[in-house]
Amino acid sequence: GDVAVLVPAAGAGVRLGPGRPKALRLLAGEPLLVHAVRRLAAAGSVHSIVVAAPAAELDAVRRLLAPVAPVTVVAGGAERQASVAAALAAVPAGPDIVLVHDAARALTPPALVEAVAAAVRAGDDAVIPVLPVVDTVKEVDAAELVLGTVDRSALRAVQTPQGFRREVLTAAHAVAADPLTDDAGLVEKLGVPVRCVPGSEYALKVTRPFDLALAEHLLAAGV
Ligand code: CTP
Ligand code: MG
């Protein structure tokens, strides 16, 4: 394999409601992080996996993942971007392609991981999986009055894994200032073109309780 995957998993999961850090919440009896890592490890190109876990859970996460796949576990940071940076610093020498994948996207198909990696291998410096936006989108002001309707045909909803040529991601994080919610955003600031490839509905991010319920149903249906 020529691919390293960084798995930011250090978030609290505030939008999911009170409980353990989100990556450790159970989905069909197993933590979200276990589902996510199992699917990553099933992608043939994946050479190494680095997880950024909550600092208080390092040993628990190492024990949890030991039977699933060989992984390196490091402490994450206060923002997602800091967690990704910590994981990036722990990538071993070798892989030329680095993917960044949310632990919260627990049901991501291995085929999507391969598709993103393949696009980087084929020559794109930065690759993101996207879906069309299905709802009408309005821009509003502070009083919730509509300012206008956005042209949805030019919008994409962005998922992970996002894939990068290793040097490009390293350079983007080296100059990162304000924290962003995705890594392609950092690369855009360098002026590097970012390629979109088709995403997967199964790569949904478990964010709110509804998403967890949906993921449970998908797993029960054999996804
Ligand atoms: N993440 C991280 N370190 C942080 C914040 C987020 O590693 N300081 C990770 C989360 O664990 C998750 C991914 O980034 O796998 C996407 O973040 P998000 O869905 O926002 O998760 P949380 O930040 O945990 O959720 P919330 O924003 O509702 O608290
Ligand atoms: Mg968050």
Give a brief outline of the structure.
Helix content is 30%, strand content 23%.
Give an account of the 3D structure.
With 223 residues, this protein is α/β, with parallel strands linked by helices. The chain has a single domain (3-220), classed as Spore Coat Polysaccharide Biosynthesis Protein SpsA, Chain A. Helices cover 30% and strands 23% of the residues. The chain has helices spanning 32-41, 58-65, 80-88, 110-121, 166-174, 183-189, 209-220; strands spanning 3-8, 26-27, 30-31, 46-53, 72-75, 97-100, 126-132, 138-140, 146-149, 156-158, 162-165, 195-198. The strands form 3 sheets. Strands 1, 4, 5, 6, 7, 10, 11 and 12 form an 8-stranded mixed sheet that branches. A two-stranded antiparallel sheet has the order 2-3. A two-stranded antiparallel sheet has the order 8-9. Helix 5 packs across helix 6 (183-189). The chain is globular and about 50 Å long.
List keywords for this structure.
223 residues; alpha/beta; Spore Coat Polysaccharide Biosynthesis Protein SpsA, Chain A; two-stranded antiparallel ribbon; 7 helices; 23% strand; binds cytidine-5'-triphosphate; binds magnesium ion
